[in-house]
Design goal:
206 residues, alpha/beta, three-stranded parallel β-sheet, 5 strands
């Protein structure tokens, strides 16, 4: 289970953790009833506060992703919710906010530009989503899965970093395995997403 947290991001670490766990489960990387690390172990692995991980686990349990048992541990729900659109939205929001921070831009000004772009893209007949993964095969598989859950106006284009040009697409969906590589690549800036970022995160100490 590969999880990368950007500690320089304005997005709280607990929210980043929830986002990535949701996506990992939605994508099928963790099978139903698969066990997760204990709160203590995951907190140690990620260098996080114990309460932050515990709060994330509780939140995902409320959403139906996880089942917690004091004796047996924490595992994926036998029938976790299938909400790839939420995973898509969370990833887009996280990338957008992170890039604004790295560029030293104001979040409010960024959201104004998002609103303007939303108004423009809503008038288009078809919206294209760049789906970035490490290999063409992984990108194609991920794009095919996404299109099953998206309205017909969206078209997913499988890509790798080598043939990706951000301004050619309305949205960018990034495989979490690429997040670490992307944050180290200054010239890769995904286009702004049709999403609403809220800095509020009700639980967690980080």
């Amino acid at each position: 289970m590969n999880i990368y947290l950007d500690k320089s991001s304005i997005i709280p670490l607990g929210e980043q953790l929830q986002t990535q766990l949701r996506f990992i489960i939605d994508r099928g990387d963790l099978a139903p009833e698969a066990f997760l690390p204990t709160v203590k172990d995951l907190a140690s692995q990620l260098d996080l506060n114990y309460n932050t991980v515990a709060a994330a686990y509780r939140a995902l349990e409320r959403e139906g992703y996880l089942v917690q048992n004091r004796r047996a541990g924490t595992k994926v729900s036998p029938t976790p919710p299938v909400k790839p659109e939420q995973a898509l939205l969370s990833q887009l929001s996280q990338t957008f906010a992170s890039q604004l921070t790295k560029l030293g831009l104001d979040i409010n000004e960024g959201l104004k530009q998002v609103s303007a772009q939303v108004s423009h893209t809503q008038a288009l007949a078809q919206l294209t989503i760049a789906v970035l993964a490490k290999t063409p095969l992984e990108a194609t598989q991920l794009a095919d899965r996404l299109e099953l859950f998206l309205p017909s106006q969206f078209k997913c284009i499988p890509l790798t970093l080598e043939n990706y040009q951000s301004m050619d697409y309305h949205f960018t969906f990034i495989d979490p395995a690429l997040i670490q590589r992307l944050t180290a690549t200054a010239n890769i800036i995904p286009p702004m997403a049709a999403s609403h970022y809220s800095p509020e995160f009700p639980a967690g100490a980080d």
